[in-house]
Amino acid sequence: MKKVKSSFSIKNLEHISGIKAHTIRIWEKRYKLLSPERTDTNIRRYSLESLRKLLNITLLYKNGFKISKIANLESNSIPLLVREIALENSSEKISINSLKLAMVNFDVGMFDSKYKILFENYGFEFVFFKIFVPLMTELGILWQTGAICPSHEHFITSLIKQKIHVQTEKFQNKFIADESLPKFVLFLPDNEIHELSILFLNYLILSKGYQTIFLGQSIPLKSLKTLLSKNNPLHFVTYITVQPSKNDLSKFVNFFNDIYIIDSKNKLSLFGPQAKQLDSNSLPENIFVHSDHKVFIEQFLSQPVFI
């Protein structure tokens, strides 16, 4: 399997850039902006360089440049102009397009520069929810449809993880733990590996002054028993993207309740697309499903605990 996708259909270009295939064909014919190759059956195929060029053109176009003006620009001046605009413009759509461009180019410098500006202007939580989450949602769809390959997604994911880790580290030693307060145990169930959201939840809980025990991805439920020796109550937090599956959710909840919740002050908070399929009204006591982080904060993280 190729690690880097190097040939794209016009539909791939449409999905990645957001420009309709019909418009791409017009730009190609009228302004000679792209030069696709043709298969033996006369189907357009575009190179990685063509995709980069289209993303540059798209960013300029969506930032107010007329396509006729873009067509008259020197080809070597376009990337420089794009970088300048991408770093100056803080709108959410332009920012997401800038990071997509950084992804296609595997350009760490562009990603970091754009992130730094957004972070300094709006703060980390804004960047995560307004930029990173929509970006990863979009890339997930692009990956599923074959428009991008795993190397693109992994490249961006690793950079986002780095940013979360940096922010998390700022809070880990900021307070003296109050043993009367619950400790939050963050984990992903067995065979669940999508950890961006649980990493952010770990940061979020720490930022409110609470202590966490972060266990990471693919944790067998039985292995959590070693934590039960802790004297203070435990609040388990997990994020279910894929596993357990819909058919196994009830079994997962009932097992967790029987082993870790009943006859204790422990709690379990569930996040994620799979968890949303659970009926919150029929859940055992002290097990909660959260559609977003705001209710979770109000319910469990509203007490100030920093010393």
Describe what this molecule looks like in 3D.
The protein has two domains: 163 residues, Multidrug-efflux Transporter Regulator, Chain: A, Domain 2; 128 residues, 3-Layer(aba) Sandwich (Rossmann fold). The chain starts with 6 loop residues before the first strand and ends in a 7-residue tail after the last helix. A five-stranded parallel beta sheet has the order 5-4-6-7-8, with helices on both faces. Strands 1-3-2 form a three-stranded antiparallel beta sheet. The longest helix has 23 residues. It contains twelve helices and eight strands.
Protein traits:
single chain, 307 residues, alpha/beta, Multidrug-efflux Transporter Regulator, Chain: A, Domain 2, three-stranded antiparallel β-sheet
